[in-house]
Each structure stands twice: as structure tokens, then as C-alpha cells.
Design a protein that fits this description.
By secondary structure, the chain is of the alpha+beta class. The protein is built from 9 helices and 4 strands, in the order βαβββαααααααα. Helix 1 (19-30) packs across helix 8 (181-196). The longest helix has 25 residues, at 90-114.
Length: 230
Amino acid sequence: MTILLYDLVGSDERRPFSPHCWKTAFALAHKDLSFETVPTRFTEIAGIQEGAAKSVPVIRDGDRVVRDSFAIALYLEEAYPDRPTLFAGEGGKAMARFVERWSQLTLHPFIGEAALMDIHGMLGPADQTYFRESREARFGKALEEVPAGREAKLEGFRTSLAPLRTLFWHQPFIGGDGPLFSDYIVAGALQWARVASPFPFLAPDDPVAEWFARCLDLHDGLGRSVPAAA
């Protein structure tokens, strides 16, 4: 039975943009599992599987409904042990938890702020209302004010990528010779930026950009199936 992935979209169903949903899509492809996406807008999340979740991603695999990208990856690893591994053992799981915290504390804040108005522009009217109300409450200011000064903060963001940049001097992926779920965690964050905003988060000659290009090429170019924002 084909797995269903509830995937966050805006007004254009062909442009899923959630970093967490992209993590899951990469993980499903890594496991060589057939899946279909269910385009889901912010205001439709509450209706997923009779209220099974408050956020996406969510997958339905037969009778099983699993939410949260990390929990989904753990489920896929356990349910399909004969497929390519996402973690390569308990050490890989521990590494992935560290990478997830690093990504959410280092990458997500700048990307989320810098791309905020671009994301708003991707949404339909109902979702724009929800997005404005929820984000203005979160940031404590008008939506338009949040990305202000992103150009001045860009150098600091790129500097924060130094742990990745120096890692890729030694190996092609975070997982070593090939990708693991840790790679998909970071690739999901950068795919969020790539799909949502034309802002140049990465310098073209950055080893991180070269690694990200390798990730976009994985699984028959799954990441490139959605063009970059123009």
C-alpha cells in the first residue's frame, strides 16, 4: 500500500515548502518506499486524519498514522529494516538528534525571518490571514518588519555554517560517504529557503552549497522536482 504524506503547500500545490515535510520526503525516498503527497494548507492541517495532528508532516502507512519528521524517520527505520538505513545504528540516531537541534537553533531562525514575507506571498488569502496573525503574535511586530536587515545579517548566517563547511573538506555527506537522515535534516531547512525565497542564503562557491546540490540530485532529483523561487 502506498504511503500518504501530508505535505505543506501554499496557493500552488506543486510547491511544497515545509522543511520538516521535505525531511520526510527525502527519508521515504531514501528507504525506496512508494508514497503520494496530500497537498495540505495551513488552514487544512486540523482536518488531517480526523484531527490526528496539529502540524505536518503526517504520514499514513496502512493503519498507522505517524506525525513529526523525526518520529516518522524512526518509524520507517523500524518498520522497514530491510531497506537502506536512515541512521546506520544507534550512534546515527544520536547524531541526528544533535544535528536537528543545531539546525533548528542555528538555521531555522534566520531562514524563517529572512523568508517570512516570501512565504506569506506563497499563500492563499485564508492562509495569509492565519499566517499573519500567528507570526505577528510570535514575533511581536508587523510581518513586514521581521525580515528587515536580512542583508546585514547574511554574513553571520553564512559564518554559522562553518561546522558543515569544514566537515565537507573530509567527506561528501554528513553521514559519510553517503547520506543519512542527518543530511536530510539540514537539506530540508535549505530546501525550505530555496523553494520559498530567491534571497541568496548560500554563496555559490560555498562547500555547503556544493553539498546541497548533491542532496538535490539524490533519489532521481527529488529536491529539484520543485524549482527554486525566482
